């Protein structure tokens, strides 16, 4: 089946939006590693406002999907996002964060077996074993190089070791991984029942959780103050005959770019979920994470050993094997050759 143009554009924007989003996330984390909740909050506010104006038209457009289904989706989505971003508070380096999140295929399979009573073949089980082994290897290697990355203004002496807090971060990433997999399956069920409404789903899943951020208000305020007090940069405005310049805190600029690129990323993923099967979406997102990981290592010079590379290759090859990419490409090529031969003989 030919890939439609809408799905193809969504895939391109997933790579452009999500990869650039990771760059700005890394730049923010380098200034303030504990800014996870602030980042999540700003992303949710931006996407909710955009949806309120353009999708819901200030609640004048009737929702196509039942509110109770959205509430369930919101709990899952909010929980996964908070866990993923909050993990940075617990000494989790960016490369490990991305490798761990690339285990979504493994989590997707576990949830499929438990909830949908799915059965998989030997190839799929083998690929998940490779992905799991890769993540475990990278996690174990990273555990030997744990350091406290807390912002100097928020450091607190505790009786717990850096390794303990790192373990808490790993637990948060594990929870987020399983919740995200369950959310993917739940979204598929909802779309089958109500039809495809990606923009509406994007709006409600970002608008409804906003009151939940009240719990984290003090943490968000702390890290907002850090952002405002960050290094100031001045940019000369190109106004003929006038020497004007605009000054702003560097971290606030990174936050703005992160929020905008997150919107491009997540909206493209939502379009993809309506156009493709859950497995295809998972494959695209996993490949995007692999590209982001490579960029993070090369551009930001994050520490990466031979063991890290081995683990990453296991995750990547396991993903390709699970989705049966090689056979799908081969079948598509053979079908194309058959069509061309038929046209020649016709």
Automatic annotation (TrEMBL):
Q: Which UniProt key words apply to this protein? A: Membrane, Sugar transport, Transmembrane, Transmembrane helix, Transport
Q: Give GO cellular component annotations, separated by semicolons.
A: endoplasmic reticulum membrane; Golgi membrane
Residues spanning the membrane: 7-29, 35-58, 70-88, 94-116, 125-143, 163-186, 207-226, 306-326
Q: Where in the cell is it found?
A: Endomembrane system
The membrane topology term of the UniProt record is: Multi-pass membrane protein
Q: Which InterPro entries match?
A: EmrE-like, SCL35B1-4/HUT1
| Origin superkingdom | Eukaryota
Q: What is its main location?
A: membrane
Which Pfam families does the UniProt entry name for this protein? UAA
SUPFAM superfamilies with a match to the protein in the record: Multidrug resistance efflux transporter EmrE (SSF103481)
GO terms for MF: UDP-N-acetylglucosamine transmembrane transporter activity; UDP-xylose transmembrane transporter activity
What family does the Swiss-Prot or TrEMBL record give for this protein? Belongs to the nucleotide-sugar transporter family. SLC35B subfamily.
Q: What is this protein called?
A: UDP-xylose and UDP-N-acetylglucosamine transporter
Gene expressing this chain: LOC115482747
